[in-house]
Amino acid sequence: MARVEVQNVSLTFGAHKAVDDVSIAFEDGGFYALLGPSGSGKTTLLRMIAGFEFPDAGSIRIDGEAVENVPVNRRRIGMVFQNYALFPNMSVEGNVAFGLEVRGEKGESVRRAVAEALELVQLGPLAKRRPHQLSGGQRQRVALARAIVTKPRVLLLDEPLSALDKALRTDMQVELKRIQREVGVTTIFVTHDQDEALSISDRIGILKDGRIVQEGAPEDIYDRPASEFAATFLGDANILTGVVRDGSLRLDGGTAIDLPAGSGDVPGELRCAIRPERVRISQSMPVTGAAGEPPEHMRGVVTRRLFSGSASTYFIDCSGREMKAIVQRGGDADMAVGSPVCVHWNADDLIPLSAGDGRD
Amino acid sequence: MAAGAIPSNDTDRKETTPMAASGAMKQNGLRKALPLLLPAYAWLTLAIFLPLSAMVYFSLLTSMSPSEQSSSLTLANYATFFSDPLYATLLLRSLKLGLLVTLICVLIGFPAAYVLAKIFKGRAREAIFLLVILPFWSNSLVRVFSWSMVLREGGILDTALNAILPFHVTFDLMYSFPAVVIGLVHSYLPYMVLTCYLSLQAIDDALIEAARSLGATRFTTLRRVVAPLALPGVLAGSALIFIPVVGSFMEPRILGGRTGTLYGTVIEDQFTAVYNWPLGAALSFILLAVVLVILLVSAPVLRKAA
Q1: What is the pTM of this model?
Q2: Which of A62, A104, A302, B291 is surrounded by the fewest CB atoms within 10 Å?
Q3: Are residue B17 and residue B100 in the same domain, yes or no?
Q4: How buried is B49 (Cβ within 10 angstroms: 0-12 exposed, 13-18 middle, 19+ buried)?
Q5: Out of A52, A88, A91, closest to residue B6 by CB
C-alpha cells in the first residue's frame, strides 16, 4: 500500500502524444478512477504505472521509490485486465497461487493466502475449477483475487468491468468497492464509463488527448466542471454561450440570463453549463419573484421526450437553441411533444466554465 | 501440495465441451456437413486407403515379378525384418535421426516462432514469415542438391571459411551424418515454425503481461504460461516432422552417401533398385506400426506434462 506519484510524464508513440506532461498523485489507500474517451491516454498512463510502457520523460514514484526504469515484475503491483487474462492452463487456485509461487513461497503459507483471497472474493467453493468453467463475473473475481493475494503496493484495473452485462457490472462495482476498502490498497481504475467512475471512486481524473483536464472528488467534478469537456463527458449538460454585461449573461438571441453571484464580474465572452436535472419546465409562466419559484429564462416547444422509467428527458427547442431537461416522474402530468413550455432554473445552478477545455 | 501441482488436461476438455453441448444438433448437422466432407473423404479413400490396402496385399505376396504366376500369400516378408538384425539396427538409427531432427527443429523453430508471434508486428512480421516459408517454394530435390554444393570440400562453405581464416582448414561435411541432419532440418523446420507460430499467436498477450505483473521473470513466464499453452503446437509440429524424417530417403541418400543408409533408403531400394515390392511394403508397415506405437505411448505422457 503506497502513494503513487506521477510527475510530468510523457509518452509518444510515433507522432502521437499518448500521454502529454501528466502530473497526478494517488494518495495511499485511495480509490481513483481515470476517466476519458478512447484514445485519451488513460490506459497508457495506467500501463506506465504498471511498467508495461516506459515514459519518454517524467518520473513515477511508488512509495517514494522512483520506478520509471523498474521492470513490471519488480514493481510489486497488482493488475486486473479487461478480459481477465486468467491462465487457462491452471485452476482457479493455481491462478491465484501463481504470484506467490513465482516469489518463491511454498506450501502451507501459499495455501492459506490463496484460501483467504478466494474467501474475500467469495469464490472458495470454486477453487478447483478451470477458468473456462466460470462465468464472466466469477472470472473477474478470480482476477481480482490473483491481483491482491501478493499484497501489491498498488492495484491497477484496466476497464475490468466492461465485458460484463449491466446488472452484473453494478454488482461488481459494489463488490469491488467493498474489497478495496477491506484490503485498503491504493487503487487506480481506468474506465470510459462515467457512471462507473462516479459511483465507484473517491476521486476522478478526467483525461483528454493525453492530458488530465480535471481531477477531484466525483461530486466536486460533477457540480463544478472546469470545462465544457468535463461538463459534457461527466454527466450531461446544456451549454450556454454569451457575453457578460451588467452582471448577466446575454445569449446570442438577446435573452438575458442571471448569473450566480460573483461570476458576472468580468466582462467578455462566457460559457456556462446547466445540468438537465436542474432545468425545470412548466406549462404556465411562473410568477416572477414568488417564493421558491425560479425565474423564467426561456420559452420553447417540446420536440422530443425520452422516457426512462423513473424520469423523462425532454428536448425543448427554445428559438433555435436546444435545451435538455430531466424531470423526475411525480404527480405532474407528462408534457406532450409540441406543447409550449417555460424553461427555468435557479441562477445558482448555472456553472460558469473556463475557456477552452481546462488547459491554458 | 501447492495448487500449481494439479495435473492439467485442459486442452482436450476445452475441445470436447462445445461438441458435447451440440449433441442434440449432431444428427442434423452431420447431414448438412456431408456434402462438404464428402470430397475430402472420397479423396482420402482414393489416395490413401486404396493404395495402402494394395500395399498390405503386396506385403503378403511371395513374389511380384510378372513372369512368375505362382505367387502365393505369406508372412515371410515380415519375418525377414526379425531374422536379419540389420533392419532393426537401421530402424533404430532412423528413429534416432527423427528424434534428433525434431529436437533441433524445436530448439530453432520455437524461438523463431515466438519472435514472429509476439515481438514482430505488421510488415516486419510478414517479411520474416515469407523467409520462413520460402523453402516450400523451391523444389525439394533442388533444395537438397544445393546443400551438397555448400557442404562439400571446395564448396561454398569451405571456400568462404578459407577466405576468412588465416590458416587452411579442410571443411567437408558432405556424405556424413551431420549433412543429413542439416538437410532434413532445413526441409522440415518450416513445419515447426508454422505450428508453433499458430499456437503462440493464439496466446493472449495479456496472459504474458498478467504473469509479469504478478512478479514472474520473462523465463518463468515462458516456462509456466507460454510453453504449456504452446505445447499443442510444438507437439503437432513434432509429429509432422518426426514421422516423415524416420522414413526419409532422399536427403540421406544425396547428402549422406554411404553413411546415409537408413531404414527409409532400404525401403526405397526395395521398390526402385531390387524390385522386391513385397519386402518393401512389409518394411513400410513395420515402420508405420512402430511410429503409431510411439505416438500412442507418448501422447498421454506429453499431455500430462502440459
Answers
A1: 0.80
A2: A104
A3: no
A4: exposed
A5: A91
